[in-house]
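Working notes for the structural subgroup meeting. M.R. asked for a predicted model of this chain before we commit to crystallization trials. I am recording the input and output together here so anyone reviewing the notebook later can reproduce the run.

Input as submitted:
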Amino acid sequence: MNTILEFIAGTKDFFMQNGAIGLFILSFAEASFFPVPPDIVLIPLTVISPAAGLYYAAITSIASTLGGMFGYFIGIRAGRPILSRFVKDNNIQKIEDMFARFGGWAVAVAGFTPIPYKVFTIASGVFRMNLTTFFIAALLSRSARFFMESAIIMAMGERATAYIDRLLGPGSFVLAITILIVYLIVKKTGVSITFTPAKWQKYNFVKKTFDKYFAKYGEFGVYIIGGLITAGIFGMMFVKLATEMLEKELGWLDQGIIGFIKSAQSPTMDVIVRVINVLQQPPALLVLLAAGLLWAGYLYKSIIYPAMLLTAFSGSLIIQWGLKPLFQRPRLSPLGQPPGFMAFSFPSGTTLLFTAFLGFLIFLIIKKTKGRHKMTAAAIWLLLITVIGASRIYLGISYPTDILAGFLIGVVWLTGCIVATKALEYYLR
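Returned structure, recorded in token form:
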């Protein structure tokens, strides 16, 4: 129990330090895969700045709704196996029955109460709930919860915390049960209550827009939404990291990681790291690029994939050529007299390149694999990036924050390349 509480406290401190951006990231993540609720950051931020309470509530509501849609698409793509990771097998049938009986109300109750929300967002995709119904239920329920929290704090100040715990803890279940009882009474007595959102002009507009969008673009449309969300989150994290680097607020992080990696120094480790470094040099990179292009062309029998792989590689070079002179951070240890932008270290060009290039290779592999092999391929990609980044730090070439920045901007570029590939597939088809 102490470990869990320490994890929650550490999570709260981390996201609190990043303000609105941290709140957005936590809200998005919690709705699809992360276990810590955004309330633990929303409430303190509103207490500190009551005037910004509605602003924080809006950020939390929007991010949580977008994260819920991401969970929905995870459910569609991964199916029941992903749901079994969060719910016992004997409860999955109960959840399916609940969705069949109550539909969007099941999502609305989970969105307003302390019930694990991500279970229901993923389940909505697994059981193919209507996307418009899911979106409206998620937006209304999450907005009701977070705006209520902020409004109470704005009215009562710090004393509101105890009331929120009661209202949105046990109280939210009481409210949900009360609504259910009223619903059953109305149904049994035969009283007719007409609720036709289809008559609402805005509802029809939203529903028609979503229906036309997914009818026209299908899987490509999912990639567009997922790509925009992913690029937005990682892009904001990069901007935040770059800002704190320029303000010299991350020295503690760099020194801590450098000290940890240096503690692993040994003759054997020196040899391993130097071999890894040789594989990062231009001759080895050109061989890797040529092999990747030949493999992609042979595997897919189409020029699209080698061309986009080359784009991922060359674009990484162009991006670092533009960003390094912008930040002009000297390297941890100068590499002789490197030309031009190579004299600077932020973001790490090597990490950026390998994140995008190897990531696109993994994307091509995942397109040909099924089931758990997809997760294995993704894990291998992350492991390779981690090893490459650690080797740069071990050799004293880059700061840890250089490596992290290279990874973040590399993911943004990789996401763009993947979405562009899906766009080419769509339009050429």
